[in-house]
Design a protein that fits this description.
This protein has helices at residues 5-30, 34-47, 65-77, 81-93, 97-101, 132-144, 162-176, 182-196, 201-208, 217-222, 227-236, and strands at 108-109, 114-120, 124-129. The chain starts with a helix and ends in a 5-residue tail after the last helix. A hairpin with a 3-residue loop joins strand 2 (114-120) and strand 3 (124-129). Helix 3 crosses helix 7. A three-stranded antiparallel sheet has the order 1-2-3. The chain contains eleven helices and three strands; from the N terminus they run H-H-H-H-H-E-E-E-H-H-H-H-H-H. The chain is extended, with a radius of gyration of 24 Å. It has 241 residues and is mainly alpha-helical.
Length: 241
């Protein structure tokens, strides 16, 4: 007899709820705190030989050089200074969109070209860098808005929401016919630095806020059209087949 998949899913959901309730009673009965629960759940996983399913590792998509330049030309043609600065800072710093929205003027050091990111992903603080050539435009922006708390503020003097920044990026992406989200420019920045900066993985990890150095390996694959590809092509010329 073939069971209805919907009924199976419902029964499975009820079974999980019952298990959660049973475990919660045990945790309360024995007065386990967070660290105790972490220890117990780890040991249960070990005894039951539970392993997470391996997630597919997909390479992030980045814009071609032409698409990248076309996008920023459209931003400049709109003649919105705040949009221009905001979307350039996404690339220059490689910050996540939530981190961008949370930057306060007090976090920006225009002399050393550094920005403090407070409680980024994983509740970690870090510093990101931006180019000295960009500092002049940023300094002018800050001076023009002396009462701003947030580096980028709406007309209502509130910080931008992540949703609003996503809409702004989508607007310019549609105008130029490219596929881009705010996170695209984080990928773009790390790929560029991987290809051109000569930074070690540990250094890239420090400024990009990646929890694991292994995550940076995917950007090395994307950067294959740089010097590595040139060296590969040069080596293959010498093969006599």
């Amino acid at each position: 007899m073939i069971q209805n998949p919907v009924n199976c899913a419902t029964q499975n959901g009820k079974a999980k709820s019952q298990i959660v309730s049973q475990i919660a009673r045990i945790v309360r009965k024995h007065g386990l705190d967070y660290e105790d629960w972490r220890y117990v759940s780890k040991r249960v996983r070990e005894k039951c030989e539970l392993r997470p399913a391996k997630r597919a590792k997909k390479l992030p998509r980045v814009l071609t050089a032409d698409d990248f330049r076309r996008f920023y030309r459209a931003v400049d043609q709109a003649d919105d200074v705040q949009h221009s600065l905001m979307l350039r800072l996404l690339f220059y710093t490689g910050v996540r969109v939530s981190e961008l929205c949370s930057i306060q003027v007090a976090d920006v050091d225009l002399e050393t070209c550094k920005i403090r990111i407070n409680q980024g992903k994983g509740s970690k603080d870090r510093y990101v860098l931006f180019g000295k050539t960009f500092a002049t435009a940023l300094r002018t922006h800050v001076a023009a808005h002396p009462d701003n708390r947030w580096l980028f503020q709406t007309r209502r003097n509130t910080r931008y929401s992540t949703r609003r920044v996503q809409q702004i990026v989508a607007m310019y992406a549609e105008r130029t016919g490219v596929k881009a989200t705010p996170h695209t420019f984080r990928h773009q920045a790390i790929t560029w630095l991987t290809r051109h900066s000569g930074m070690a993985d540990a250094e890239l990890q420090l400024i990009t806020g990646h929890a694991r150095r292994e995550t940076l390996a995917m950007y090395q694959h994307i950067a294959l059209d740089g010097e590595l590809e040139d060296r590969y092509q040069e080596a293959m010329k010498k093969v006599d087949l």
